[in-house]
Write a structure and sequence with these properties.
Elements: H1 18-49, H2 52-79, H3 82-106, H4 111-139, H5 145-173, H6 176-194
Helix pairs in contact: 1-2, 1-4, 1-5, 1-6, 2-4, 3-4, 3-6
Length: 217
C-alpha cells in the first residue's frame, strides 16, 4: 500500500499542516459519532430499565477502562505504530457497532450487550485519543502546537455540548440501528485518510531497536 509521507524540514518537522488537518477532521468526526451513539445508548437504557443502578453500571463500563488502562496507554502507544492504533481502534469499534445493530434488528438485544459494547469501545478509546494526541507533535510545525492544542480542547467541548441533545433528538425520530450506523460511517471516515497518510513515529532508543542494552559500554 502506498503511504504518503509529509515533506519535512531539516529538524524533522513537517513543512505544512495539510495532512494533519485531514487526519484531524477524520478523528473529530469519529469522536463526535462515538459520543453521539454513547448518549443514544444511555437514552435507550433509561427507556428500557428506568433504573438508576443500570445507568450507574453503564457509566462504570464507559469509564473503567480509562481509569485502569489510561495511566499505561501513553507509554504503550509510543511503542506501537500510532497509525495502526488509530485504524485498529476505529475499525474494531465499527465492527462492534455493526454487531450491536444486528442484535437490535433481530430484536434480541439485551442490556448486557450494551454494557459489553460500552466497555469494549472505552477500552479501545483509551488508546485511540492518546495515539492521536501523541501524533500531533510529530505532524505539526513547532510554532503551531499551542494553536492545535486549543483546537483539540475546543473539539472536546463542542462534542460534549452537541452530542447529548442531538443523540436524544435522533433517538426520538430514528430507529436506533440508523443512529448506530452514524458511528460506523464516522469511523470509516476517520480510517480512510489513514490508509494513505503516514503518521510519524518518534525516534526509538537503540535498546528498543534491538541495539546496545542499557549499561553496556
Amino acid at each position: 500500500m502506498f503511504i504518503m509521507a509529509e515533506p519535512v524540514t531539516e529538524d524533522g518537522k513537517p513543512q505544512s499542516m495539510a495532512r494533519f488537518w485531514v487526519v484531524f477532521a477524520g478523528q473529530a468526526f469519529s469522536l463526535f459519532g462515538s459520543r453521539l451513539v454513547q448518549f443514544t445508548l444511555v437514552w435507550w437504557l433509561t427507556q428500557e430499565s428506568g433504573s438508576a443502578s443500570v445507568l450507574a453500571l453503564a457509566s462504570i463500563m464507559a469509564l473503567l477502562p480509562q481509569v485502569i488502562v489510561g495511566p499505561f496507554a501513553g507509554s504503550l502507544v509510543d511503542r506501537w505504530s500510532r497509525r495502526l492504533v488509530l485504524i485498529v481502534s476505529d475499525g474494531m469499534i465499527a465492527l462492534a457497532i455493526v454487531f450491536l445493530a444486528l442484535l437490535y434488528s433481530w430484536g434480541i438485544v439485551e442490556i448486557w450487550h450494551v454494557y459489553a459494547l460500552m466497555l469494549f469501545r472505552a477500552l479501545l478509546g483509551a488508546f485511540q485519543w492518546p495515539a492521536f494526541q501523541a501524533s500531533t507533535s510529530m505532524m505539526v510545525p513547532k510554532e503551531q502546537l499551542s494553536r492545535v492544542a486549543g483546537f483539540n480542547q475546543s473539539l472536546q467541548g463542542l462534542v460534549a455540548i452537541l452530542a447529548p441533545p442531538l443523540g436524544a433528538l435522533l433517538f426520538e425520530i430514528l430507529p436506533i440501528q440508523y443512529i448506530l450506523a452514524i458511528d460506523v460511517a464516522t469511523a470509516l471516515f476517520a480510517i480512510s485518510p489513514l490508509l494513505v497518510i503516514a503518521v510519524p513515529q518518534p525516534p526509538r532508543p537503540p535498546e528498543a531497536q534491538g541495539g546496545v542494552a542499557l549499561g553496556s559500554g
